[in-house]
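User:
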Amino acid sequence: MKKRKTWIWVLVAIFCISTACITTCCTSSDDNPVVETQQPTIWRIQERGKLLVGTTGDYRPLSYREADGNYWGFGIEMAKKIAERIGVGIEFVQTSWPTLTADVLAEPQTFDLAIGGITITDTRRETMLMSEGYLANGKTILCRASESDRYKSLADIDKPEVRVMVNPGGLNEKFANQNLTHATIIVHQKNEEIPSLIAKGEADVMITEITEAPYYVQTDTRLAAPLLNDPFTHGEIGVLMQKGQDDLMEMVNNAIRRMKSDGTLRRLHEKYGLVYAY
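Assistant: Predicted structure:
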């Protein structure tokens, strides 16, 4: 009788251990895809076989879409790391700054998450989920190198004779409208075209980010970023997604933390010439 009771307790113990394993995590290594219960978003992505990533493709060096449709950039590589972590392929979906919020909130969903130069803000967090930061940013300017001594502060820019160019629908336009009430603000539809327009003299200043400005200074000697080391604002860039996808958000944050700890994030910063702040 005692042996029978002993075997019953052994079987109960085995059942409990097995159940605990199933309901927590079924992976033995951080390098393998994570499959956990209570993860409906991740299951849906795994069943589909690919992660759908919204990105503007107009923001060198974070997210840029070439004429042949291929995407490259810091954010693009981040997205690929996240897809690898889930264990699926990846597909990039075109979005834009004016439609970004609507695209994230769309039903049915247009994509699983958005990435590439998206600043973490309280306003976005009110209606959407935003990850931990993976890249420091702040507002700065691009101008012609021949006029770099002309702009030492916002006051130097906020003059009627200064033509300030911004792309529509994003935080650059919002910043310009709030802080440059005397300057002449020009809205240009394609963000990636603005630096060359500044260089050609079709506008004087571009409101941009410290993540974007160095690329154009390095690739076009006609341009300068005189306030690069003294940005007007300070913030971070993160991953944006629809609320209710807490399992995916946890996955993304875990991927960001891992990339910080194993040096991957630092190497990406160095590859794209960006300042590492972590």
